[in-house]
Amino acid sequence: HVIVKVPLSKVISHTRRVREERRKGSYGEAVSSAHPPALIIIACKLQLIAEPPNFFFGVSKNFGVIHVGSPAAGMNGVTHAFVRIANHSKFNVYGIEGSWEGLMEARFRELNWGNVAGWMSRGGSELGSKRQLPTDVERIAEALNDQNIEGLLIVGGFEAFHSAKILQDARNNYAALNIPIIVIPCSIANNVPGTCNAIGTDTALNEICRQVDNIQQGARGSGKG
Fold first, then answer.
1. pTM exceeds 0.70, yes or no
2. Which of 63, 94, 143, 182 allows an S-S link to 151, with CB 3.0 to 4.6 Å?
3. What pLDDT was estimated at residue 3?
């Protein structure tokens, strides 16, 4: 995360321009007037709510997604977004159930636009997440090769980061691991290298504060607070 200094007058000017274009009904101009990060957010939101067209000409790719580490808020939401955005590009997504143990057993589950509906608001891990590392790299590479996985998304905490490093180090020995491997930090511990804030950390802190408030309220009601 990089904090950039922007003149207040410029920010106000952008905001007023967007508001004016929206008032006139020129929504295309309103989007164009927004900041680049806002454009990315708008584009992603459209892909999450607008079902992709049925027609497609070309060769599709197969992506895998796996949850690693302790379950955390946001794991299902990340997977939901990944699947729907991938579907817009006509990519196939396979969820791996049971973390690395499940991958070694080739427990793949096809994920598509429809069967991830509702995942955004669900806690925990719909695919199943465990605190384990890819110990048997040979079996993992074999399973990825058999399923023709051409890209792997690892969602989780420090174990996810460590797992990606193990797979990267084994690339010279297994051709099936020479694929794009991405880690999305998702952890209540917020201990993933390379990021300031992991997904799920803020939710966990908010929940802790809420429960502390509930305890305090209960103590006051019983005259002990």
1. yes
2. 63
3. 74
